[in-house]
From TrEMBL:
Organism (species): Linum tenue
MF (Gene Ontology): metalloendopeptidase activity
Protein name, entry field: Peptidoglycan binding-like domain-containing protein
InterPro entries reported for this sequence: Peptidoglycan-bd-like (IPR002477), PGBD-like_sf (IPR036365), PGBDSf (IPR036366)
Source domain of life: Eukaryota
């Protein structure tokens, strides 16, 4: 006597065949929300250095603040001082360049702009003053090295297995 219900294998195969129909990726159509448009202002800052005064510098300061490079940045400061490329911004850029193994100049060179325009996850590199991009040193040794300890001892004499 055959059962009238489909077997477990047939049900499983049917589900696997139908799965691609129900799961698909959605494409964003709004161009203002794309990552490249959010950092497009960086192209205008290429070649910018300490002492310059540009309208997009507040956006650069906000970007560096978001990832932990500028601690006490607020956008509510006066617009005239906010557009100024000061020593704090230069120091933050130097830290960014060192973290990403770029030429440390403190200026917005093409390599720095390209690195900043690369999409990233959004987690800050520096959190509460701790730079997670640089290796932490503990006790004079890097934590990336393997530390091994031997927990064994030899028997006294020279014991042998019975033959």
């Amino acid at each position: 006597m055959e059962p009238k219900t489909p077997s477990l294998a047939l049900t499983l195969i049917t589900c696997l065949l139908l799965l691609p129909l129900f799961s698909h990726a959605h494409v964003l159509t709004n161009s203002t929300s794309s990552p490249s448009s959010r950092v497009a202002f960086l192209q205008h800052l290429k070649g910018c250095h300490k002492g310059d005064k540009l309208n997009d510098i507040p956006k650069l300061k906000a970007y560096l603040h978001k990832f932990g490079y500028l601690d006490d940045y607020t956008n509510q400061t006066s617009p005239s001082s906010n557009n100024y490329f000061d020593h704090r911004l230069e120091k933050a850029l130097k830290t960014y360049q060192a973290n990403y193994h770029l030429n440390v100049t403190g200026a917005m060179d093409s390599a720095t702009v390209a690195s900043m325009m690369t999409p990233r996850c959004g987690v800050a590199d520096i959190i509460n003053g701790t730079n997670y991009m640089q290796p932490q040193r503990r006790g004079g040794r890097s934590h990336h090295r393997l530390h091994t300890v031997s927990h064994f001892s030899f028997f006294e004499g020279r014991p042998r297995w019975r033959a």
